[in-house]
Amino acid sequence: xxxxxxxxxxxxxxxxxxxxxxxxxxxxxxxxxxxxxxxxxxxxxxxxxxxxxxxxxxxxxxxxxxxxxxxxxxxxxxxxxxxxxxxxxxxxxxxxxxxxxxxxxx
Length: 106
Known about the structure:
Order of helices and strands: HEEEHHHH
Shape: globular
Strand content: 5-15%
Distance between the termini: 18 Å
Radius of gyration: 13 Å
Strand order of the largest sheet: 2-1-3
Number of strands: 3
């Protein structure tokens, strides 16, 4: 997966507020905090946990870089303090940045 694909898939995963969480990378169906976004029992994820769930590799780190560039702060801070709409906006901006950079390399 490319970084843009990772960002898009993670954004899609948490686009439903019921599949998004704050204060934990992921939670199970009972709302219990899980240690990672790729835990098989996860049913909702934070901005970073969604990336882990989609693709735990270097592309995840690159995707985090774009999320950080998009908001000029740690993405988890946006996730935990600014709400779902701000997280989706952060993803939209990160996707646009990643696409712009990818197009500039071609």
